[in-house]
Amino acid sequence: MSYQNTKDVPGTPQATLSSDLKPAIGRIPLLKNPYQSAVTVKVGSEGAQRSFIVHTELLNYRSSFFKAATTGNWDEAKTGIINLPADDPQVFEIFLDWLYQRKLDLNPYQAQNLSLILALWIFGDKRQAPAFQNAVAELLRTFANNHPTVSPEVIDFAFENTVEGSPLRTFLTDIFVWQYSIAILVRRTLDEACYPKAFVLGVVERFFNLFPRPNPNAIMKSRPYVANARVYYVPEQEVLGSETK
């Protein structure tokens, strides 16, 4: 499963985050002792890397990826340091805010936030945090109710960073199916070659599932090329002055 660095998403906006990410002990019952165990997560490439200290028990509770990294004989479990050079510090900070506060302080009504919202979902998928993905899905639902169109660039980014059967792919496909037509899809694809092949096939399949073809016998009886050749006639005009003497 391949993913791109979410920091490379063009036009990724800055999110407004809660300034205090310290856990409210009374609001996190699963932590018996919030200060008993912590891990350092270093996120981002060299020169743009940021370090975050996170409570291990809470991180493991929400993410199978981090649970595997902090247990067993892995180096991360021994050193207490997890390196994520391919991830975006901004995306991880939003994830951390959700981890402790159980909220996403991001405005889904602003169209420019879509790339960041998709990057959040992809991070949750990559780091095996399904509850976080579902929280992001609610942002996507709100976004789609107010901005029922998505750009080819956004679709391309989502399909490059997900696999077949991904709910995110289905979400973007459904937006297109309900807002456009196959004619628009084909025209744009042929003119600009701007949509991923998997997306095009998904839209077409979704259309046929929603609007199934009629009975095959009825189709055969209504074949225009058999019933009447006049359908394919070209207009005729009288040819004047062509008579020979």
Structure report:
With 245 residues, this protein is mainly alpha-helical. Helices cover 48% and strands 7% of the residues. It has helices at 56-62, 64-69, 75-79, 89-101, 114-126, 130-146, 152-160, 167-179, 182-192, 197-210, 216-221, 224-227, and strands spanning 38-43, 50-55, 81-84. Strands 2-1-3 form a three-stranded mixed sheet. The longest helix has 17 residues, at 130-146. The chain is elongated. The termini are far apart.
Order of strands across the main sheet: 2-1-3
SSE sequence, one letter per element? EEHHHEHHHHHHHHH
Strand content: 5-15%
What distance lies between the first and last C-alpha atoms, to the nearest angstrom?
Answer: 81 Å
The helicity comes to: 40-55%
Silhouette: elongated
Short characterization:
This protein has 12 helices and 3 strands.
Show the helix and strand layout:
Layout: E1 38-43, E2 50-55, H1 56-62, H2 64-69, H3 75-79, E3 81-84, H4 89-101, H5 114-126, H6 130-146, H7 152-160, H8 167-179, H9 182-192, H10 197-210, H11 216-221, H12 224-227
Parallel strand pairs: 1-3
Antiparallel strand pairs: 1-2
Keywords:
245 residues; mainly alpha; 3-stranded mixed beta sheet; 3 strands; 48% helix; 7% strand
